[in-house]
Queue: 3 jobs
Job 1
Amino acid sequence: MKQIFVLIGSRQKNGNTYKFVKSIEERMGNSYVMEYAFPQDYRIEPCIGCNTCFSKCKCVANDELINLQNKILKSDVFVIASPVYLHYFTADLKLILDKCSWWAHTLRLQGKPTVILSTCNSNGNKTVIKALGEIITGMGGNIIATSNAAVIPNQINNEEWLDEVASQISERIKEYAELPPQSNKDIEKVFDRMKQVIKLQREYKTKLGIDPGEYNYWKNMGMLNYQTFSDYLEKKNTGGCYVESEISAAM
């Protein structure tokens, strides 16, 4: 069974965003299990801006963030979805992503196939898809499909439209769920830029005696040894980079 984890930014468990994702699930078949998470399902404390996550690669708060993160990381495909609130995704989803900030410095999603969805009344969908796309790419997620379903024009309640879009997305999920994690040109840009930053952290470690968690993460994962993220993933997928369990305590 392939595991699809769905993080929905809305607290409406029977709202339009859930309906959109559910229409995809109905076309997936019995070989896929979709697990849903809503903001109220996990106790997530507000970010206090202490920056410990960047130095230790984990949050200091005694909340349920790690449980949610593990669900995302263990999935074969990640689906992230949000209604449009004031031309942006929801505050609940923003809080969760804020608490995962160090993922954007470590490409923590590691090429995981990711679907980004949004719903809106009439407008604002592009800002949500764009913002989430930049965040997911920064976290190393391989975006395989994006879509918005609007009330005006009638999309979310238009069965013909919904069937066409949901069918296309479900086929993309089925395709990528069977493949190893992959890179793309946007992730490669992030990898190249962040690798330069991480190398500077190595200098700080030597000169100032600081033990930066992000540098340690890159080193332990073996990412510093590769010119491209694609080459790193290829080696990782064949079991040649690292052993996940050896560094799980730092996550």
Job 2
Amino acid sequence: MLVDHVAAGQDDQQPPKKPKFYQILYVQVIFAIVAGILLGHFFPEFGESLKPLGEAFIKMVKMIIAPVIFLTVVTGIAGMKNIGSVGRVTGKAMIYFLTFSTLALIVGLIVGNVIEPGHGLNIDPSTLHSTKVDEYAAKAHESSITGFLMNIIPDTLVSPFVSGQILQVLFVAVLFGLALAKSGDLGRPVTDFLQQLTNPVFTLVGMLMKFAPIGAFGAMAFTIGAYGISSIGNLMLLIATFYITALLFVIVILGAVARYNGFSIIDLIRYIKDELWLVLGTSSSEAALPSLMAKMEKAGCEKSVVGLVIPTGYSFNLDGTNIYMTLAALFIAQACNIELTLTQQITILLVAMLSSKGAAGITGAGFITLAATLSVVPAIPVAGMALILGIDRFMSECRALTNLVGNACATIVVAKWDKALDKEQLDLALKHGIVKEDA
């Protein structure tokens, strides 16, 4: 077997030195998160002042996202034997995204009706007002499906690398990759150069990840220092409901699709644990995007599939955000003693499906899409979002974690559908942690 062969090969050479536990990234991030929570709790003002540490780390990672996506997609498409597979992969990915995003919305709606986390709060809607909510509502009115689609097209060929908008970078990368593939031998020197450039760029990603514990420490110290653990007490039921619902969605629904496609969702979560701890510490799924792409490629998914599915999924496959939207909408209605009819709830579901695409890629998209959804359902006051504004930071971590697992699962499933998955390598990576070092 291949596992035995790998083990035998390691016996002939010097076995790789196993890192000490404190040298492992996710262990360092865990310690940083715990230290940040303690510091933020006992020294809140000092903890709040550490916000720049978290922001600086996220900015460093965002700095490298555009080159990673561009190089992965261009070299992947340029190396394709069948260019038509670009549209095929994208189409399959979109079918997957639409299906599971809708399921996530339905799950949030069902759980909200069963548990009723807002029941008994008896809030008078007329007493609710927040200038911050007004800002989100204004952004929601600005976002639309047409505007979102138009925004995918950049002003110039190089402007996406300055603005850092993921879908614009992806759009340019796909076009450039197709152009290189059609250029044949004339485009080969450029393709070879970009393939060589990929190695130092991913080496840079590894270097930046060494700062992850510092970023997680600063971000967590700020969160606890600014908002305080006590601030979540009166809304604990909503937070607990959301976390449990997201966990069940991952284990049951994503677990079922994973099993059907020949892998375990638990093994996948274990494989991407570094990225999950990083997201938990920084509350940003973008912080893990470059390393997630590298890991999926090393797990046996073809480069072109990874490059197309993950960046697109960051805008279209937001399972955690969708669960949050329907659950939060019902929470606000229940807190204000507003009885919603089945028709109104279905309207929320349909509007949320559209608004989640219109605000994709916008900072604070979860809150903006909620505002856009509520503005179409007059029965629920948009001002009711003030009830959950204070705990949104704690909710955003769960949204980001669920989104990350959903996109990792989607990459493997779409790769398998398109016969672009090395199943033997996937099993080695997920079960034994043995990856392709040349990926």
Job 3
Amino acid sequence: MAGKIRHYFAGGNTAKGFHHFFESNLSSLSRLWILKGGPGTGKSTLMKQIGHAWLEKGYDVEWIHCSSDPDSLDGLIIPSLQIGLVDGTAPHILEPTAPGAKEDYVNLGQAWDRKKLEGQIEEVAKYNKEIEESYQKAYKIFAEALLIHDEWEKIYIENLDREAANQLAESYVSSLFGNVNLNKQGEVKHRYLGAATSQGAVDYIPNLTYELPQRYFIKGRPGTGKSTLLKKVAKAAEERGLDAEIYHCGFDPESLDMVIVRELGFAIFDSTAPHEYFPERDGDEILDTYEKIIKPGTDEENLPQIQTIQKRYTEKMNEATACLKKAKYIHDDLESIYIQAMNFERVEKIQQAIHAEIEEIAQGT
């Protein structure tokens, strides 16, 4: 029987620039291949092909998607074998902790025809400069959007009943964890719930939560305590020795959007736009923070201001997404230069060598 794929992001194009949590997801691995090489050298394809081969053998795998192009992979993990492959090129440059023993660099650049590339040095440099400029412009606009979002939050924070918010968080922590307290150090993984991509906002909530018996959909407005509640749930999981998946906001990495504790069978997440979902089965429950902790009538009293803020915020987010889309178009042009210079038969041999090493690891487990 084929294994299952779990999809998530470990890097994000955020209002604080590019920010990643790769180390959090790779630290427990005993073997890691760090792939090097320019765009179009086959890193994502290599990871997908190895991943699918081990899926067919019945192994569960984790797809770490690229936050700029979710159709591409930044990483692959086979948890039961404690092995992984990761794209180690900018912006997520990774340094080995135990070179040769745990990590190996794999240079796919050895498979390109340097003479074909030498004739296009200026064009490659031009594309790289334009891509970097597009990303920096996107980050600047995201930062402007965050300031507008802060204005939005302020309306609700000024109308928030803090005592009610604390009581709500405490009641959910008590309900979710009961008297559970495990005598171990919990394993905590930090990831992103979704990502701002060239395709717009993308998330994998259905894939990450479908096996869980209990799912809590937090509804509310900006500034209604959703992230604060999730931080308290995450802290409780860590204090009680439970393994936890902590999913950060792809727009503001200092905020949380979801916590999953598989040992207790639950996910609790911010279910508002751009990752809005609704209950569809037994075990799904809505938690409305606006209804429970915000002064009644706040929406109505501030409607014109809220509508203006929403419009400004949406315009900024669309503008930033357009920058990411432009970067993707230029990146595709850059990839085409490298693709025509690649000897993919050599890449295939590299892939086969990695696959053979994984076979040896699997036989030894």
